[in-house]
Design a protein that fits this description.
By secondary structure, this protein is mainly beta. Helix content is 9%, strand content 38%. The protein has 4 helices and 25 strands.
């Protein structure tokens, strides 16, 4: 996973420079109004990191125990354990993000699987609430964008898996059949319910060995805090609610909502199970932000919600950005949208991606914009969400 910023703060009040000079041209306005949802629109001389930032309140909301496996991101040895965590009975969200990085003694095909073991005293029931499994690929942007969109749309399974005390089964049977070639990413989102304490293990092994067999014989647990990966461990925060402090008014010009930057929005803290050390998830990947933004139009303008890759100039690994969101209705129907929709990534300014256009009330009264955001895997952070006043026909 990617990102490159560090942090402090908690409730978040912070103001940038004036955006009064940042006005859409007539041509840009026409281009935006003609654009489909999720389309890339060129906004020359408009995009900047200096928009006033929207002050907001953020608090954790009830959610599942959260586990992420992304340290080491690249598993460099042929056979090893990349994560091992214990969970309590209840709901668990698990984000799998690991790559076959074996180069010595040569590049080789591997298998990366996630196993769940019943560590309780009674038969364990596992019920999938949300489930996304993708074939391994070197196209990390595609996996990250499509995986997040599928997770947001996923529905509970009717199947219940039974596991006897002391036994282990694959969390995702498809992972047992996938051949993971060198540099391919294994990417999956899982949210499930267990009624016994359990142990979750991510391991890499050869193609002929089942996950059960590998779990019995592998003793090598790779250390965390390597040179690759956002983090691994178990975290008590999995969901946030965000709302703006001051009502957005179109008369005040363009403004930006910045979350998951590591500064105004700190990285979540947890614990790494194999060492007992504090864990930090640099990027808050897999955390769900439920956002409610109050807005009004004192000047009769509409409000366009867009995003862009603000990190392209910072680092060679930040040349593209791909995301997915669920957003409330406006010009386009409420729903889940991949960003961008018809291209793999958005590259850099002057490219912006249109998420939604909101229409003002006739009397200028307040309205609420709602969306679900999660920091997109494989993209550098933050991914600014900008609110741009726009003249409507």
């Amino acid at each position: 996973m990617k990102l490159k910023r560090n942090l402090i703060a908690v409730t978040l009040f912070f103001i940038g420079l004036s955006s009064s000079a940042q006005q859409l041209t007539k041509q840009q306005t026409q281009d935006l109004l003609k654009a489909d949802q999720g389309a890339i629109v060129r906004l020359d001389n408009f995009l900047t990191e200096k928009y006033p930032q929207i002050p907001y309140l953020k608090y954790p909301t009830p959610g599942p125990q959260y586990i992420i496996s992304d340290d080491p991101e690249y598993i460099r040895v042929p056979e090893a354990i990349a994560l091992r965590e214990n969970v309590n009975p209840g709901t668990v969200r698990f984000y799998l993000y690991n790559v076959n990085g074996v180069k010595e003694p040569q590049k080789m095909d591997r298998k990366i699987v996630a196993m769940i073991k019943n560590t309780g005293k009674a038969t364990m029931r596992i019920k999938m609430l949300k489930y996304v499994s993708q074939a391994p690929s070197t196209n990390y942007f595609k996996l990250g964008k499509e995986g997040l969109a599928s997770f947001l749309a996923a529905q509970p399974s009717e199947n219940v898996v039974l596991v006897k005390p002391g036994e282990a089964v694959p969390l995702d049977n498809k992972l047992e059949s996938y051949v993971v070639k060198y540099d391919e990413l294994v990417h999956g989102f899982y949210e499930f319910l267990v009624d016994q304490p359990a142990e979750i293990t991510v391991l890499q092994t050869d193609l002929k060995t089942s996950g059960k067999e590998a779990l019995k014989r592998i003793t090598n647990v790779l250390p965390p805090k390597t040179k690759s990966g956002a983090g691994r461990g178990i975290y008590g925060v999995s969901n946030y609610h965000v709302n703006n402090i001051d009502v957005i008014d179109t008369k005040n010009g363009t403004s930006a909502l910045i979350v998951a930057d590591g500064a105004t929005d700190p990285w979540i803290i947890g614990k790494e199970g194999t060492t007992g050390q504090q864990a930090k998830l640099a990027g808050n990947y897999g955390v769900m932000y439920e956002v409610e933004m109050k807005w009004k139009s004192s000047d009769g303008k509409g409000l366009a919600l867009m995003t862009w890759n603000s990190r392209s100039a910072d680092n060679q690994w930040c040349s593209g950005m791909a995301a997915a969101m669920k957003v409330s209705g406006g010009k386009f129907k409420e729903g889940i949208i991949q960003l961008p929709k018809n291209e793999l990534v958005t590259k850099a300014a002057p490219e912006a991606v249109l998420i939604q256009v909101f229409t003002p009330k006739a009397n200028g009264e307040e309205q609420t914009i709602k969306f679900t955001y999660s920091p997109p895997g494989a993209s550098c952070l933050p991914t600014p969400l900008i609110f741009v006043p726009i003249d409507l026909p």
